[in-house]
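[INFO] parsing input record for Polymerase
[DEBUG] input buffer:
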Amino acid sequence: MKTREELGITLFAIALVLLQFAGYAFVPLLAGALLLLFSQHTFATCVKSVPLFAGFTAASLIVGLFMMMARPTETAPLARWIQFYFLTVMLMGVKDKSRLLTAVKYTVYAIFAADLMANILQVAGVKLPWVYLTIRPGELIPRFQGIKGNSLYSGSISFLALGFLINEMGLRKRLRYSVAFLMVVNLLLAGSLRYFISLALVLVLITFHLYRHRSYLLSGICATIGMVVVLTRWTMMSSESNYFRYKLWGHTIDRLNDSPLVGNGFLFQQVTDHTRFSVRTLATADVTESTILLFGLCFGLPLMFLFIASLFRTFSHYSNYKHYAPELGLFLGLALDLFWGGSIDNVLSLSVLLICMYLINQKHQTLSHP
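[DEBUG] output buffer:
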């Protein structure tokens, strides 16, 4: 007979898989799983361990609700934001976050296996009905779109799988390297350079034990963010993706200047399969190509910088770890991705980001107040 916690963790993992492929129909299952896992005492303890992020969460919700009363808000973006706040709050109340992250790991492995198989079939010339391959200007091969028909999702699930596999020391070396090779190949097929940048920094983190050296780690993170911005600017005329990304960054910054203190409320990108890709149409659909800038656009610059501060506060706690743990690399990669892309609409990657953040900060609180 499974305990309440075991049942909640099992249902959470199942719900994550179903949500990836069936949409919001299985939100009640996810909600039920988190209610089984929720503890008020754990929630209060977790809030104390992430004061900056908790402050951002509460303040952004207040600002968003105030802006809803001041101007009309579309219904579609609200579902994404409700998901964001629900996961943010409920995952704080999960007592055994390490065990929950382990359950999510197996979910990631299962989805990755399906994604890899779909890409292999595409490479072999099999026509999948949900996939339409095109080659973007400046690129040599199409971006393969995996099990969901989305190359960004394929890149994301490959990065998550690699992030977990790196710490699988119980596997034989030959098997671990073979599986890692397949994950890198799938990442290549997805064609998303930003995940390679994140993966490279994670490997540097592990190789040189940067998690033990706070100043080196923070300097490396800042340098990486700056490097990506510069490289995006330099390559925008040879890469369609970087052209759109840099232009949309600039457009979003211009919009930020119109309402720098309180933003515009609950906005979210509204791209459909029929959206024509141009800077104008993407900007109209509220595409920012940066979740960080999206937070600024929605809630104003003060809250945007509060969110960034919560990320760097978490990075500063890496030095508490004597040995590498998967939450370090996963949080680093997913947090960096928020600067030059990222998204909060994917319940899987958002859950991993939040669980890792809470784990890292709770360890710091435990060491500070044993």
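[INFO] The first helix runs from residue 4 to 22.
[INFO] shutting down worker
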